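TICKET: design request
STATUS: open
ATTACHED STRUCTURE:
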């Protein structure tokens, strides 16, 4: 199960390196005592190749590939990887661990993918679309968000 969410955000700091993505992911994982993810260049390449396919329209359409996937769109080219990942992490407030569900009418699948215990590798990419917006995708291996399973 993969969930899509659009963010209309404006940020200006350039925090888009692999280390930036990892730091944000691993901070969230550490908060729930889940091991760290490592950067995977193959996943990052897959993410970039898919992001390039979305450059013409920036539509929030999943790749339907073999990995877990978080995608987002921003209305400008200036938001950062760190801020985007933090918005995904903010979905934690909508996740009920005891019931293993999201609050009704809310999404939390980006968060649960980030903290999915079995997902140990990540690769992300950010591109500026032809309309001036930004498309960001993170790929996770092994994928998470399996129905009925807890993330940690």
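STATUS: resolved
RESOLUTION: sequence designed for all positions
ATTACHED SEQUENCE:
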């Amino acid at each position: 199960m993969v969930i899509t969410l659009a963010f209309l955000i404006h940020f200006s700091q350039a925090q888009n390196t692999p280390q930036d993505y990892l730091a944000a992911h691993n901070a969230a994982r550490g908060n729930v005592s889940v091991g760290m993810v490592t950067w995977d260049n193959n996943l990052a390449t897959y993410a970039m190749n898919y992001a390039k396919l979305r450059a013409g329209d920036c539509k929030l359409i999943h790749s339907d590939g073999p990995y877990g996937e978080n995608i987002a769109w921003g209305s400008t080219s200036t938001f950062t990887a760190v801020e985007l990942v933090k918005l995904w992490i903010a979905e934690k407030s909508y996740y009920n661990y005891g019931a293993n569900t999201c609050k009704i009418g809310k999404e939390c699948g980006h968060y649960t993918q980030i903290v999915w215990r079995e997902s140990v590798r990540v690769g992300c990419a950010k591109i500026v679309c032809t309309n001036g917006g930004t498309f960001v995708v993170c790929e996770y291996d092994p994928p998470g968000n399996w129905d009925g399973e807890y993330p940690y």
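CLOSING REMARK: Residues 17 and 81 are 8 Å apart (CA to CA). The chain has four helices and six strands.
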